[in-house]
Design goal:
Blueprint: H1 5-29, H2 36-53, H3 61-86, H4 94-112, H5 117-142, H6 149-174, H7 186-219, H8 234-245, H9 248-251, H10 254-268, H11 277-283, H12 298-315, E1 323-326, E2 335-338, H13 341-354
Antiparallel strand pairs: 1-2
Amino acid sequence: MHLDTRTIVILATLVAIAPTLISVSVWYTRQTCPGFGRWTLGTLLGMLAMMFLSLRGVAPDWISMVLSNTMAVCAAILYFQGVRQFCGRRLYGWPEYLAGTLTVSAVIYFKYFDNNIDFRILALSVLMGSVGCVNGITLLRRAPAGRGFSTYFTGIVFMLAGVAHLFRGLYLYIFTPGTDLFAPSAVNASFFAASSLGVVCWSFGFILMLGDRQSKEATRTPLVQAIAGSAVTNAEVRDQVQRIILSEGFRRSPRMERFLTLAVERTLLGHPEELKEYALGLDVFNRGEEYDPRADSIVRVEAQRLRRKLREYYDSSGKNDPVIVEFHAGSYVPTFRYATPIEMQLTMSKGSATS
């Protein structure tokens, strides 16, 4: 007796509703961590993709095939970007968008110009599998130190999902070519059942990772400077960093953006000991294990450049910003404080004098 694959897809859609609603609720009502917004949107698009997929044979192909696969690809991109944000890694943008565009183009071509279901499934499986494996590796190897069970759990789920996608694509292409998506087979039924379980697992994994990070931030000793008895909150620091990296001077310098973002995130997580010259050489500037700070001064040079860019930012577009992010000479650990009225007045006066 074969399992009804369409029924499994419908059940998977219904099961995915719960974690999707929980993620949206958390995102809307609580202060979250970097990447959580993209994870939530990815989960929402993934649920919609399964819903439209279940309409195969009932709704037009452009809905049940093109639109559903496009949503699935967009969900994969959002998961990828969310994981990188959570781990303090820079967002590249164009590689994942290019891969997504090529995948959707392959789906359209091998449907309307050269109808071949094997190539459609293979193209989607390669993208989904690659993204899943990369997300898993990033969470298991590149996540901030002190990560707990939730990060390992979510990373393993992503790895398993990636391997499952790659296995299914290659298996169907090599051993059972021409198999319909809803053909009553153990491979199809197992795959869609596992996909449903995967969505639930990594969705709750995201929520657990958020809880772990917030609990660590609540118990750490704040590395901020108090002004009039009040300390800069993590949310205010992250908002300020977003303003800085979107400014003209930083938007065109991905390396400075990555340096600043990683240093701030590790400081907020209470891990300033990881902001050593050797660690920054590896994590920010992609130096290998043989990197020797005594022979290669890139971290020191770029740190001086970062301090200069921050000063230029606060002298120009950031002159009215409420929070000051700065690096003291000889230190790679940023400090955060509120701008005093006197500083803001002096900065505005300097701007008026030069205009």
